[in-house]
Write the structure tokens for this entry.
Amino acid sequence: MHYGPHNSRLSPKAYTVTFICSDVIALILQSAGGALADTAANLASATTGTNVMVAGLSFQVVSLTVFCLLCAEFFWRVKTDRKQVRATNWAAGNVERPHPDVKGFKTFLGSKLLLSSLPPSLTNNQNSLRTRNHSHHGPLRLPSC
């Protein structure tokens, strides 16, 4: 099993509890800061509310950064574990074949990346072309080459 908890620094339950609690704390700080800034009677109170709100945002950014680092470490461990398992299987004469869905999924991701990187005029996305030209109210005409 490649994606098991043995590749993770934290247990699945610890991930859930830690990061949901940190999100709740960040949202409480942000909403409390917004409420303080909104109901402030003077500039000092408004500044305090803004500072609390920024502290909540900062806490959320730090929490998200820690989560991303832990995810990156998990996927690094999965990758090295897969290499070790493949080498062991190869030495034993059991060659591991990739799952047939892997090629299709990689093709899907590649085509999605390619299509998302094309300019809207090439993908015939009329809504995004219309939003660039707000004064246009008729049928959309693409420029001819």
In short: The longest helix spans residues 43-91. The two ends are 54 Å apart (CA to CA). The chain has a mean pLDDT of 77. DSSP finds five helices and no strands in the chain.
